[in-house]
Amino acid sequence: MERDSDRLPKHLLIGFALALLVYVSFFGCDQYVRHRKGAWEVNFTTNSMGFAEIEIVHPSLAIHSTVVFEGETATNSGMVKFDRPEKPVPFGKTRFEDLTYLPGSVVIDFFGHEVELLPRTLYLNKKEHRWVRDEVITLKLSEKLPPEMNVDSRKRKRRL
User: How many CB atoms lie within 10 A of CB 27?
Assistant: First the structure.
């Protein structure tokens, strides 16, 4: 006859195995949900007139739009896939990224113009603009945000 103290290691091992199985299952499901839609793909280029432009693509959301920055030139070009934080961009400055669940939210400052990519809508200079497939949007110099509005309002800790 087995004593209760002899069964304790067996019960602990079974409990640990079940907990590990549940954790691995939920972790796998969460990773799938986080990455299933894919990331924003932004192509930084110049158009035929020499103006800086970005081409925004998201295949699973059927988004394909171009934003031209009239009167602005860029010396660098390239494609950036926003699948992880803090990726360098060829021109402009990334202000905010929330890539926890892709495609997430990305805010970039281009020459004083603010462009925010969200799955449901596009914000240009803090104004909502619905996604229209294959649309070319031109942002004029006169549409730049005033300096007082061009400040990131999100609270961040200062790095010392």
Answer: 10
Contact predicate 95/114, CB 8 Å: yes
Residues 155, 160: Cα–Cα separation, whole Å: 16
Q: With a cut of 70, say whether residue 146 has pLDDT above it.
A: yes
- Which tens digits make up the pLDDT trace of 63-113? 999 999 999 999 999 999 999 999 999 999 999 999 999 999 999 999 999
β strands within the chain, DSSP E: 40-46, 52-58, 63-69, 78-82, 93-98, 105-110, 113-117, 122-124, 127-129, 135-139
Cβ 57 vs Cβ 64: under 8 Å: yes
Q: Please name the residue that has the structure tokens 């229209």.
A: 132
Task: Give the whole-angstrom CA distance, residue 54 versus residue 68.
Answer: 7
Give the pair of three-digit tokens for residue 50: 């020499």
Q: What are the tens digits of pLDDT across the range 16-25?
A: 999 999 898 8
